Amino acid sequence: MADAASPARRSTGTLPAASVEPVTTANRSFISRVIHAALPFVVIAIVWQIASFYTKPFLFPGLGSVAKSFWTILTTWDLLSQGLVTWARLVVAVAVSLVIGVPIGLAMGLSPRVDEFLRPIVKFIMGVPALNWVIIVIIWFSSTELRIGFVLVVLCTPVTVYCVYDSVRAIDRKLTDMVLAFGASPIQHVRLLLWPYVKASAFTATKLNVANAVRTVIVAELVGAPLGIGKELDLAKNVFDMATVLAWTIFLVLMALIMAQGIEYAERVTLRWRGDSRGRE
Amino acid sequence: MSAAASVVATTAVPKLSVEHARKSFRQANGAGVDAIADLSFTVRSGEYVAIVGPTGAGKSVLLDCLLGLKTLDAGRILIDGRPVQNFVREQKGHITRIFQEDRLLPWLSAKDNAAIGLQMQGVTEKDRRATAAKWLDAVGLSGFKEALPRELSGGMRQRVNIARAFAPNPELVLLDEAFSALDDVTAMRLRQDFKTLAQAQSTTFLIVTHSIDEAIFLANRILVFGAPARLMAEIAVPPHAFEDRMLSDQIKDEVRKLIAAGARVQ
Q: Residue A14's pLDDT is what?
């Protein structure tokens, strides 16, 4: 063991001082970034806590109460499962919007006729506020899941369509000529050239849609959903339990952030040829 | 006798035949502009023919027509006596092009990029990767087969571009100012390597270039185009013309005068 350990010690010991220095600087830079990122939240928390001393708990509950509610959500299956239901709705809606939006965006990007026909419709749908859709689906459907799913999909799909459409139109004409010059069939053209661009745009669309859907799903769930975070928020609202409302809000934001991180990770792995994602970190 | 000249074949049916080709485009203001005007020439199998001409002489448009990417307004292009569209459709990868910019797909490795033509031909993955690897070895990229284009220098990417054009075992290779985007030293080295590789193939080469030196170095016949594309003169390049300073200067002077006479007012 001693023999095995000693070369490692020797090699560490012979490291030039210059190679240690950047690590220290990097650590300092990381700590500095963490402090800078946390500072606004610390200030808000202090102000909030001070406010809680002078107001009623249903307006500004103490941070301890919020933390307790949050812990209760995490450790109580009945509550945590409500969060998972909302998460599942988000995932399914975003996935369905990809399944519907990618072919539409591809068709619009490739065919001026399809583009001419569908673009006004997609634009119109994009212009309809989420709340209007909620009202429309209440009249249209009796199933709660269908209502929520429809609202989310109808809001996410146009974003996917536009992302894919733009990416197809942005493909370098020279690459298209190259692929065609080698005699690519339409299927080979799509698989070899279009699909990698579509994949990249699908990731962008998914990130936008997650952020979009997180904001919308609660509105949809508030209107009569028997399960989900929206229902829990409605219950908390009825008893003026601001600590629980805040705890669910934090839960929702964290859920969106974790999903965004997961998508970014998948994007980095899938689109490693771009080699730029990590550089931006 | 130069190696380039030695590969000139004498088959009766020309490999490539362009007959009274015409092509024009409509500009944004509605006015028509001729790119190719009554162009006729032939290239025999195994020949190395360079096309030089002023900017805007429609040389790249001609290459697009040769690959079936654009169609002529009038006239016809025949490969082995068959219309070019039929040839391109039926024999994928038998005409390939070495582009001015490498045009590599950024998400594919050097090997997969080199195998694109083979993929179009329906070659199995195993065989096409083996053939692409062989061609990457031939262009001096043995250690970079799995590298992505962004990990390669400009010269290396152009070598992949060359490997991609050779890999499908083409009958006709079109060079579209293939070395003009590189620095002089890299371009000269790559031209030399290209010539060595080309001489080992029984392939016909049509070389579009702005460099008269390159035309003399690579070709055994130079076609001088005017603008719009029309044949102004054919100049035979004798063996070892590139090494014979006096002879190459003579050819250069002649070509320059013809280009100046044929240039369209820009």
A: 37
Q: Are B159 and B178 in contact (CB under 8 A)?
A: no
Chain A positions touching chain B (beta carbons under 8 Å): 174-175, 177-185, 188, 192-193, 196, 271, 273-275
Do the Cβ atoms of A181 and B116 come within 8 Å? no
**ipTM attached to this prediction:** 0.83
The sheet carrying B74-79 orders its strands as: B32-43, B16-26, B74-79, B82-83
B172-176 and B95-98 beta bridge pairing: parallel
Asked whether the beta carbons of residue B120 and residue A183 sit closer than 8 angstroms, the reply is yes
Looking at the complex, report in whole angstroms how far the Cα of residue B203 sits from the nearest Cα belonging to chain A. Answer: 17
In chain A, residues with a C-beta closer than 8 Å to the C-beta of B107 are 196, 271, 273
- Report the amino acid identity of residue A168: V
Q: How far is CA B266 from CA A95, B7, B209, B261, B262, in A?
A: 54, 38, 19, 13, 12
Q: Report helix, strand or coil for B231.
A: strand
Q: How many other CB atoms are found less than 10 A from the CB of residue A56?
A: 10
Chain A residues in contact with B96 by the CB 8 A cut-off are 181-182
How is residue B254 written in tokens? 């002649």
Q: Which residues of A touch B69 (CB under 8 A)?
A: 177, 180-181
Could you read off the pLDDT tens digit of each residue along chain A, which spans 281 residues? 334 444 333 333 333 444 445 556 667 778 888 888 888 889 999 999 999 888 888 889 989 999 999 999 999 999 999 999 999 999 999 999 999 999 999 999 999 999 999 999 999 999 999 889 989 998 999 898 999 999 999 999 999 999 999 999 999 888 998 998 888 888 999 999 999 999 999 999 999 999 889 888 888 888 768 899 999 999 999 999 999 999 999 999 999 999 999 999 999 988 888 876 444 43
With CA atoms as reference, the chain B residue closest to A195 would be B107
Element (H, E) at A148: helix A144-169
Q: For residue B172, what are the β-bridge partners?
A: B95, B204
Nearest CA among B39, B66, B78, B52 for reference residue B237? B52
Under DSSP, the state recorded for A171 is S
Closest residue on chain A to B174 (Cα): A181
In whole angstroms, how far apart are CA B39 and each of A220, B27, B171, B182?
Answer: 68, 21, 22, 30
Task: Say yes or no for a CB contact (<8 Å) between B103 and A180.
Answer: no
Amino acid at B256: R
Query: CA-based angle B170:B175:B176, to the nearest 5?
Result: 135
Q: Look at A188 and B88 and tell me if their CB atoms are within 8 Å.
A: no
Contact, B16 vs B87, CB < 8 A?
Answer: no
- Peptide bond before residue A40 is cis, with ω within 30 degrees of 0: no
Tokens standing for residue B21:
């080709």
Where is A167: in which H helix or E strand? helix A144-169
- Return d(Cα B138, Cα A78) in angstroms, integer: 66
CB contact under 8 A, B93 and A182: yes
